[in-house]
Design goal:
- The structure is a homodimer of 590-residue chains.
- With 590 residues, the first copy, chain A, is of the alpha+beta class.
- In chain A, 57% of the residues lie in helices and 12% in strands.
Chain lengths: 590, 590
């Protein structure tokens, strides 16, 4: 069975020793009431709830799945009670504005509780997360009247939320959606169309479900500039917040999927459903984008959360499982065989996953810090932070989910044949985490966003400040234990900088160069960022000798440098190869 | 839905133009009656049967799964009839000795029909393949009496076969198995013990199931030198071949797995079952090894077979799916969007998979040629061929299954959200092919076998002849179209040679260096071998201009060199990093 214990010490290390969270929060006026002791209590409570209530529902939820019957979706046993507890405990509103019942915690806190939640149960996690995303989008674009009516109910878990974008023929390319919104005399809109892949589109966890729906007005311009955003409640909401009649929206079916089976992925039919415009006409994509950026960070965290459970489970298995003997002499003569941990290749898989996970956690926290600055700081600081977030969000989403998948596959491999058997839970991790690479913008789309909009379009303006900051960090790495890390890190920065320049030059004469380089470039960017995170962690660990914790951190940083980071070189050479070799084949060839 | 059309032209290209099969068969006296026209008819019949009968059962077989009920295993609808057709068509005996009803076809033919079968339906494929493996082991180690009685029935599909190795506590490390074999007065043995992960241990496809079982005699030496091999039929077999009573062996359950759900993976209980010794006492592992080597090649072919379907399906989807516009200008102005094929990153995934697949097919055929020589040639030629087979078998098994998995994951990614939905069939490919990396010796074990027994132990004797041959092939690559391939190929050979030397040196003083290098070294070896195969294919294509087929081959060879092969460099650097960084952590750290 999969095992999970919240990595609280590693979380505190990142929070306090790497990012000096208390100082950070105190430096931002809007956050200076965030109290370190309260945060610690939050982390411990989150660990308790997730380990004891939500994690145990992960296996059974997979076996049982969400069930669809005549328009009604039933979640697996235990989900309803857990969702109630989750809402009542204030977890949905943890990062929300107190005016709507939220606890106002910054992303530098909620990113950690999100990780715990995704480790515990990714199917369950999606129900509250979609509501949080919808609420975030509403809070920035809906009227006060709507927000005051809806948001407290969403943050308490009484109501849930969704985002309805994809249609059967239109996923990545939302410009070609067909769902129509016709203005009604009362100022509302009549929404008609079919949406697919709607996470939590229908379920039994909440009294009401608030759908945010992209649709086109009859006279809307073609393409993505003609899309508006609408709020469509499952049940009409009266002015006092009580529920009225059922709206003309419902689930036509749920999808049968590879994983996250306890999460209901619905086909939603809108048959003249009453909807309310959110934000301005034809600016729906921008309004939805708030939510999508938020979700994208979460999908990276999903990769980390799964990979953390995968690591812990595989490490526990490797410790217990006796198989073969050490090549350097028997280690457990009293037993019929040594543990799997005597075999270097088992360690290779475990350490790679752990090195990825710890860098991922640090990278999420790093990005969260800039998210907090972009939201809570002011002026130039906030603007610069927003640029950094724009640059890093696609990397967090894609690189963490790619490496999270890899970690789950490697951990499954440690289990040998048992890894393929359902009851051990490892294959579920692989099936569940796979979606993180696909949804909320497939990883190829994230890479294209990075390479095109975030790098080439601004002529590497965002990259330059990031590179400059990394060079400073590398310059500070002067302990003998960090020598190999420094070498690898500096080489990575050099490589990233040169490749950035190269793609900008190539793409000036050939638009295809951006997408041809995108995924491999994103991986170069991701590896360089992980090296940066290991530099920050190593810096925080050097010279501390309380127990083996810090020495182990430095050893893993070194391991990352010599046995994980080198993968980057292949990706770099692929970027250098350019687009020509891809585009020379005719379409008929494929 | 997944689509599959047997790649007959590519198969013929490899057979005739790359390996000049007819000349090859004629050069070996025992094979000089193999007729090219007959082989072509075999390939076409295989394509027909697999595309029309066996492939259509793949999706339904996954949904239905093998069912266990009170000791009885039922296969999905259609399997029984298909298995009957498969047996009656002579496909089980295609490579078998004519004295037992086989068609005597060489591996250079059956490797291709195996690929077709694994593309069509990996769950189904395992039922005949296990029988073929068991029969092969028997044909070399059992008495004529037993073989004459059993083998014709296995090759006709009337009976099936299994290999029973793994026990709950012992998979990779068979030295610690507990199953007992007690000699009986009549010369037979009473077998008692529990075996797990037994593919086809029980099912409804055949009248009888012949189990080959590893067990220990009461006075057997400890470890792997005390293991003997026994034949245990499900039903006793009378001297005339008719069936007697049920033997004391049966399935206790079947496993619920990630994939290959239509293949019954059984827990087998032997309760004093009557068994017959195969080969000599305490030499069971060697007798079983024949079968395992055979299976290992098949598991590599399984990776290729899945990845071929994945490629074809994703290419078809990419052609049809309209999404976004080309970065170099609209390509289909009459449609609402261009096809996915205008996007370089989609091509990147498709071409990588295709470049892997074509190299894999060529590598399988290359290895099959040496398997044929080792079996059908004589003297030094046969001995040298056996060495080459020993060297390449772990690479074929592990590298092809690793790259096959990667190909399925990439193809799934091309489908976006639809790739995660069961009805599209892509997620099944991923779930099914995953097992090929795990069973028949997990890929880490294959790598250890390569690095230890096949490379270090003989001081690179096997590698040296292989490298010398590759250098000759590289020297022949002198067309301008192959310039980049030549550069990459030569660099890869240099790298492989240097790394081989380095691991031999390092491991002289530290036994852990072998396993620490193993997986990354196997990948370096695999990439270099694929570069070799692309060199052979390019050589066969240069100067031929009948249609775009040959120009496309050269373009894909070039693509492989500049955008696939560079991955090798990261692996090479990881090998260079050595074992120290892995072994410095205490067991408690994990």
């Amino acid at each position: 069975m999969a095992v999970y214990k919240t990595p609280l010490r590693d979380m505190r290390f990142v929070l306090d020793e790497v990012f000096k969270a208390t100082e950070f929060w105190q430096s931002v006026p809007a956050l200076n009431e965030v109290d370190r002791d309260t945060v610690d209590a939050i982390l411990e409570e989150s660990a308790k709830l997730n380990e004891n209530v939500i994690f145990p529902l992960n296996r059974s939820g997979d076996e049982e799945g969400a069930q669809f019957n005549n328009g009604v979706v039933t979640t697996p046993a235990g989900f309803k009670e857990a969702f109630r507890q989750f809402g009542e405990g204030g977890w949905i509103g943890l990062g929300a504005d107190p005016r709507w019942g939220g606890a106002g915690m910054p992303k530098t806190v909620t990113a950690l509780t999100d990780e715990i939640l995704f480790s515990a149960n990714p199917s369950f996690a999606l129900y509250p997360l979609l509501g949080i995303g919808a609420a975030l989008s509403m809070s920035q674009h809906a009227t006060d009247e709507i927000n005051d009516l809806y948001l407290p109910k969403i943050y308490s878990g009484e109501w849930a939320g969704t985002m309805c974008l994809t249609e059967p023929h239109a996923g990545t390319d939302l410009g070609i959606i067909k769902t129509k919104a016709v203005p009604e005399a009362d100022g509302s809109y009549s929404i008609t169309g079919t949406k697919i892949f709607i996470t939590g589109g229908e379920h039994d966890l909440a009294e009401n479900i608030i759908h945010l729906v992209l649709a086109k007005l009859p006279d809307a311009p073609a393409g993505s500039k003609g899309i508006s955003l609408f709020l469509v409640p499952k049940f009409h909401v009266k002015a006092d917040g009580s529920l009225g009649e059922r709206n003309q929206v419902g689930a036509g079916n749920i999808e049968h999927k590879m994983g996250i089976k306890a999460s209901a992925t619905c086909v939603m039919n809108f048959d003249g459903a009453k909807g309310y415009l959110i934000g301005r006409i034809n600016e729906g994509l921008a309004a939805m984008f708030v939510m999508m950026n938020y979700e994208r960070l979460s999908m990276g965290i999903q990769g980390l959360g799964a990979s953390e459970v995968a690591y812990q489970s595989a490490a526990a298995y490797a410790r217990d499982r006796l198989q073969g003997r050490s090549a350097t002499g028997v280690k457990s003569p009293e037993k019929p065989a040594d543990s799997l941990l005597v075999h270097p290749d088992i360690r290779r898989m475990l350490l790679k996953t752990r090195a990825h996970n710890e860098a991922a956690r640090c990278f999420v926290m790093y990005t969260a810090k800039y998210l907090d600055l972009s939201k809570y700081a002011e002026g130039e600081v906030a603007a610069a932070a927003a640029d950094r977030v724009a640059l890093l969000t696609p990397v967090v989403k894609a690189f963490l989910s790619d490496k999270g998948f890899e970690g789950c596959v490697d951990a499954q491999q440690v289990f040998g044949g048992h890894g393929f058997i359902r009851e051990w839970g490892m294959e579920q991790l692989v099936r569940d985490v796979r979606i993180a690479q696909i949804y909320e913008g497939a990883n190829g789309i994230q890479a294209n966003d990075l390479m095109g909009r975030k790098v080439v379009k601004n002529k590497a303006a965002f990259v330059k400040t990031y590179v400059a900051e990394m060079r400073e960090a590398a310059a500070r790495l002067n302990a003998p234990e960090t020598a190999r890390l420094k070498t690898g890190f500096v080489a990575a920065i050099d490589r990233l900088e040169a490749l950035t320049q190269r793609v900008i030059e190539l793409s000036a004469s050939n638009g295809d160069e951006i997408n041809a380089a995108a995924v491999d470039y994103l991986h170069v960017f991701g590896f360089t960022s992980y090296a940066y995170m290991w530099a920050l962690m190593a810096e925080a660990a050097v010279g501390k000798k309380d127990d083996s914790f810090y020495a182990d951190k430095l050893a893993l940083a070194d391991y990352f440098a010599v046995r994980v980071l080198p993968e980057m070189e292949g990706r770099a050479r692929m970027v250098e190869a350019g687009a020509t070799s891809l585009m020379s084949f005719s379409e008929a060839y494929f």
